[in-house]
Design goal:
Helices cover 21% and strands 32% of the residues. With 87 residues, the chain is of the alpha+beta class. The protein has one domain. It has a two-stranded antiparallel sheet with strand order 1-2. The longest helix has 11 residues. The chain starts with 8 loop residues before the first strand and ends with a strand.
Length: 87
């Protein structure tokens, strides 16, 4: 058995980041596809179809793109963990 002369040591880090961006107010009358729906139906529709919905600003191609462009209101990092490892 040979004597160990060197080893590699490193650190791993993991965490979860939660980011909330500024909101956009939608006027339901501007979205015929939402008229007549309940709040829960509207919520589900927007969550599933924002990529195809028109933005409130003509600069963007979709509501989804416009939402991603908004400034960050808050962020939170949780579940932080680190560990020293030996290879």
């Amino acid at each position: 058995m040979s004597e160990v002369k060197t080893i590699k040591v490193y650190v791993t880090e993991s965490y979860s980041t939660w980011v909330r961006r500024e909101s956009i107010e939608l006027n339901i009358e501007d979205y015929p596809e939402l008229e007549g729906k309940t709040y829960e139906e509207i919520k589900e529709y927007v969550e599933n179809n924002a990529d195809e919905m028109k933005p409130t600003d003509d600069f963007f191609e979709s509501l989804s793109e416009q939402l991603w462009d908004k400034d960050v209101e808050r962020d939170k990092i949780n579940n932080e963990d680190s560990e020293i490892n030996v290879e």
